[in-house]
Amino acid sequence: MSDEPTADTDRESVDESADASPYTLQRDDDEHRAFWADAVADRVEARDPEEPIVVKGGISPSGVPHLGNVNELMRGYYVAEVLRERGHDVRQVFTADDRDPLRKLPRTLCDLEGELVDLGEVDAGALGRNLGAPYTDIPDPFGCCDSYGDHFSTLIADSADAVDVPIELVSNTELYESGELEDVTRFVLENRDRAREVLSEYQDKVDASYVPFNPICEECGKITETVTDVDLGVEPATVAYRCTDMDAGDRTVDGCGHEGTATLREGKLPWRFEWPAQWKVLGVDFEPFGKDHAEGSWPSGQDVARNVLEIEPPVPMVYEWFTLEGEPFSSSAGNVILVTDVLELIEPAVLRYFFAKDPAKARDFSIERLDQLVDEFDRLEAIYFDEIEADEDETAFAKRVYPLLVDEPRAERVRLPYTFAAVLGMTDDPALREEIARREGHVPDDAPEWAVEGALARVERARTWARRTENEFDYELKRTEIPDHDFDPATEAALAELAEFIEAGHGPEEIQGEIYETAKRYDVDVGEFFGAGYRLFFDEKQGPKLGPFLAKVDREFVVDRLRRER
RNA sequence: GGGCCGGUAGCUCAGUCCGGCAGAGCGUCUGGCUUUUAACCAGACGGUCGCGUGUUCAAAUCGCGCCCGGCCCGCCA
């Protein structure tokens, strides 16, 4: 942290690494990087890591895997990709921290298809009886997976697939049961005095009786906190425990009072030790984490790593949380959105772009204003292909990041502006959509087939967006049935004359003009006359620019509808 | 109480590391597209850079003190 020269070369490595701030993405002597992941990669390389380099993330499979979880995935992914570009072999490991106990009942769950399900629709009683037990020991409420933990781990894996991030999903329970964590667990217990000493700097509750191991009660299956004895002299090593009450959030999970023994595979390390233990066992070189860990888990974690486990902690990076529509993600409050839902609204590349932005800034993911995010992405893409001018910084960022967002940069791609795509979504006729897009100049004449397909795929997404948000683009051509209406005679006569005009065959702008003219001739208020049109075609008071729209819908239908014959 | 991150146009954000004319997109307004009707084009408007203070020829940028929002000091993306 200090620039002062160090006299003792012996201490240099210690000084350099001690108190590593998880916030600073680069040091003073680093060259400036357009993309934060490059700055992180510089620091990972500075460790001179062994191949393969390991990038880790992890979450508790506690419930609906929402967009917040994708943050953890994507932040690691960019660093992994940058390191791969530099010729390194990189593993992106993701732990499902599935030996963690269920602390409270989620109000909302979801099945493997991503359908949200209220807690009341599953066997809530069975879940309630399992409060305090590891996720992997709780039956899957949907009955489709081996356990509650497996169910939601599967969904995490699906999320990673959906954004095309290759991860190795590692079950924490599996690490304990297979014995992979046994040596480090034993080491912590052998050195529990030192462990206590280190952790007591961070947690007041750590006293002389503290034992850094939480056995699973063989009687009731819950994670317990009261270890009464440790015996490392037998094989396998065991701890003796008494199943006591455990604090879990605002409530207490009752212990059953059972006294028994457990092996080191039949329990877990407390989080403050478990995290560094994962670093050691998995050989982690870089780990991003939410800001919640920045001031608690991370300072104690790196201390435990160096002074208990005697390993160098990974390069850290804090990312800010983001909100959904201005509110925190919350499965209990129903403020969640799954990755699969998001991908029905925007292309994967756009979602990936969202997570490429500065991790230090809190952001809002707004479905309402999703068009803004898409516009931003389109701009980045256009800058990448030198189609528009931008300043130095923005250009550098675009050039660096864009190739990481798409499978393959292809200059011939075609993007319809998102809100325009939403307008096209008012009709479900694919040919009509393409025709209007071409007429408006959004599709070049020589655009290849795949590019046109890609452009029109956005129409479906924008249509889904308009429907979901019920916004100003949520109009639907009412083809099958004529909407209820009530016009005065003058309006009816004007509509009849407009029908004749259109039947005779005129262009989009001519029709637009004729709407005004007809209204005037029959002394109908222009606004009301447009309103009548929107009523007939959309069952709404407002809509898209009417002339061009009607000109493109098949003429017979338009004429009949204006005459209110169908 | 102590610590950390953020605060830039109505909105979403770049720019802060490295001090050098305050920027982009959207929105708004005006005009154009044959005549108010949400797509397209042009232009304009829009800012005490959270507040104060120090350093400097020069501060959004560096220092210090505050304010506001969030987070941590139990568990937890």
TrEMBL record:
<feature type="short sequence motif" description="'KMSKS' region">
    <location>
        <begin position="328"/>
        <end position="332"/>
    </location>
</feature>
<comment type="similarity">
    <text>Belongs to the class-I aminoacyl-tRNA synthetase family.</text>
</comment>
<keyword id="KW-0963">Cytoplasm</keyword>
<feature type="region of interest" description="Disordered">
    <location>
        <begin position="1"/>
        <end position="30"/>
    </location>
</feature>
<feature type="short sequence motif" description="'HIGH' region">
    <location>
        <begin position="61"/>
        <end position="69"/>
    </location>
</feature>
<keyword id="KW-0648">Protein biosynthesis</keyword>
<dbReference type="GO" id="GO:0004824">
    <property type="term" value="F:lysine-tRNA ligase activity"/>
</dbReference>
<dbReference type="Pfam" id="PF01921">
    <property type="entry name" value="tRNA-synt_1f"/>
</dbReference>
<dbReference type="InterPro" id="IPR042078">
    <property type="entry name" value="Lys-tRNA-ligase_SC_fold"/>
</dbReference>
<keyword id="KW-0436">Ligase</keyword>
<dbReference type="InterPro" id="IPR001412">
    <property type="entry name" value="aa-tRNA-synth_I_CS"/>
</dbReference>
<dbReference type="InterPro" id="IPR014729">
    <property type="entry name" value="Rossmann-like_a/b/a_fold"/>
</dbReference>
<dbReference type="GO" id="GO:0000049">
    <property type="term" value="F:tRNA binding"/>
</dbReference>
<keyword id="KW-0067">ATP-binding</keyword>
<dbReference type="InterPro" id="IPR002904">
    <property type="entry name" value="Lys-tRNA-ligase"/>
</dbReference>
<dbReference type="GO" id="GO:0005737">
    <property type="term" value="C:cytoplasm"/>
</dbReference>
<dbReference type="InterPro" id="IPR008925">
    <property type="entry name" value="aa_tRNA-synth_I_cd-bd_sf"/>
</dbReference>
<keyword id="KW-0547">Nucleotide-binding</keyword>
<dbReference type="GO" id="GO:0006430">
    <property type="term" value="P:lysyl-tRNA aminoacylation"/>
</dbReference>
<dbReference type="GO" id="GO:0005524">
    <property type="term" value="F:ATP binding"/>
</dbReference>
<protein>
    <recommendedName>
        <fullName>Lysine--tRNA ligase</fullName>
        <ecNumber>6.1.1.6</ecNumber>
    </recommendedName>
</protein>
<keyword id="KW-0030">Aminoacyl-tRNA synthetase</keyword>
<dbReference type="InterPro" id="IPR020751">
    <property type="entry name" value="aa-tRNA-synth_I_codon-bd_sub2"/>
</dbReference>
